[in-house]
């Protein structure tokens, strides 16, 4: 049979205007050589059908189109007596993808990544994709410091036009930083400069932090830190001339060298303001932190321009430009700055958009905003809005953006984006002690009921010390202007025989109502009224003081309790506070109408101080005072106690204070003093992750009974480590405390923790 070849791969790539055959009418089309590809798929790519005229241009187009599918290795078009024969040679399919020697990466994750680029089992084999996969695998190893990695790719032909692909990996050892050199350092010791770097030579924790492994991004950050260090100390002409990163022949050791030019330190001769000041020069000069005669500091200069910009932003000038122009006197080593101010146009907020709140209602967020729509832009109000939304505790992250409205020069939108977190939780409290072993308690809470911002809590405690059933409900916006109202109901049974405190039992039930009223942006007052009925039980093992109280005032008591308080909260976040504080004064009074006459008052001050970028100092102080009145003593079950989580960690719960001489148990007291200092820092190796926070603490505290003189020498001190983890299960808190001045009668509880399960 006579066959005429009319087009092929060469024709497809180098087609000319000359025809290779005379046009003809296609009587039939036949497909040959396909195994996996459906004939209908091939027909769909052909530019001609039966009964149509086949031309040289159409033949060229057909070959190009079929090649472009990537399915075929070769394409030929032939004619047999008016029949168009399409002869195809399919590319092989990938039968298997195998990895050998892979330890640093998960094989299944690697396969999933290759699927996205088109390399997977049962897909068409493409050598270029295999080469790309090999290079990417090497790149991933290099990013982890495995500079000696060897990746060998083997492609094995299999039956039925298939191939097997195997990536054989020889990982080798991870390369470590052997030495970091700073050449040209004269003003400061080289070891002090390299101590600023995140990258470092192998040390105690580098197995965890991986900071002894080279990273281009980390080195860039370290060099910028070095630059800031010099510029903040007056070295205006400091420059990093070059950096070299070299590796040893065995690809195990890395050497980093930075060549620097220090220059000379400059002092500030003067600072002037220029441009459209808008505000009085006297007011703006208050924000200038650079003073004449001081050594230049870029940090202070940056803070100056930032503060002036923020102040102009409070007046509605959101796009103010504040730039400092230096004038150098190189002979005298002096620098004068002129700060040019261009306030730009005054802008207002057109729309406020809330996004990310799939569960929380818009109104829950909007009622916390202090920047209003159609009002002048106010930077302070926008920052306060973000802080108030974050302070709700419903969101992992709150971000605020103010993009310009397209087509305008004096309008911005305020976009508030939140990332919600679970607000319902089942909390478990736990502690380890030599007397009780493991003590568990639990509660069920929903802080954002149905996204309404209302709080509901149910506590169920079935430990051998306390059996509690309680219900609480709080509506923080009972009225639109922020007056809150809440209700509480409870039933409680207590048996202290297994604790360090004096032995007694009690059964009580009660309930009440409470209100909170905002009196300023961050201040509110609260008051409430509740009723309580308590039945006490003592025995011969109880302290004589407890027995005398029951004998004198009876086992059954009722209380009409009035409460009042004031609180001021300025912390920037409930999840991860770094600045601001909390001040509280809380009092309760047993009112006429009940059998108990007593008062209790507690004052607390807590403050967070940002020390560095990621480090915070927490200081907390608390003092409590209680007593009876109208001829009655303070009920012993209203005494203050200290020791354990919430006061002095490292000591057993409620184990500090006056001791009953007969039973050796703690009686509690009428006055309590607690102080805590805690240095908070990110968990090493966690980077910017705020879910884990490490603390180093120093606690002090004590309780004094009626008639005892308060003395600093009576305080108990402890120190230790704490960890707070916002885990997927809920908040976990751990502390490992070590008493510093334990007395012979003190009881120790070194490990204490709380954990919760979030839903």
Explain what you see:
- The chain has 759 residues and is of the alpha+beta class.
- It folds into six domains: 4-90, membrane protein fhac (Ubiquitin-like (UB roll)); 93-170, membrane protein fhac (Ubiquitin-like (UB roll), Roll), CATH 3.10.20.310; 176-261, Roll (Ubiquitin-like (UB roll)); 267-342, Ubiquitin-like (UB roll) (Roll); 355-418, membrane protein fhac (Ubiquitin-like (UB roll)), CATH 3.10.20.310; 424-758, Porin (Beta Barrel).
- It contains 13 helices and 37 strands.
- It has a 16-stranded antiparallel β-barrel.
- The termini are far apart.
- Residues 1-19 and 431-437 have low confidence and may be disordered.
Task: List strands and helices in order, with pairings.
Elements: E1 4-7, H1 9-13, E2 24-25, E3 28-32, H2 39-45, E4 53-54, H3 56-68, E5 72-80, E6 83-90, E7 93-100, H4 107-116, H5 127-143, E8 150-158, E9 162-170, E10 176-183, H6 190-194, H7 206-209, H8 216-231, E11 239-247, E12 253-261, E13 267-275, H9 281-285, H10 298-313, E14 321-329, E15 334-342, E16 348-355, H11 362-366, E17 375-376, H12 379-391, E18 395-401, E19 411-420, E20 424-433, E21 437-446, E22 455-462, E23 466-475, E24 484-495, E25 505-518, E26 523-537, H13 544-553, E27 556-569, E28 580-591, E29 598-610, E30 616-628, E31 650-651, E32 671-682, E33 692-704, E34 716-727, E35 730-739, E36 748-749, E37 751-758
Parallel strand pairs: 3-6, 7-9, 10-12, 13-15, 16-19
Antiparallel strand pairs: 1-5, 2-4, 5-6, 8-9, 11-12, 14-15, 16-17, 18-19, 20-21, 20-37, 21-22, 22-23, 23-24, 24-25, 25-26, 26-27, 27-28, 28-29, 29-30, 30-32, 31-36, 32-33, 33-34, 34-35, 35-37
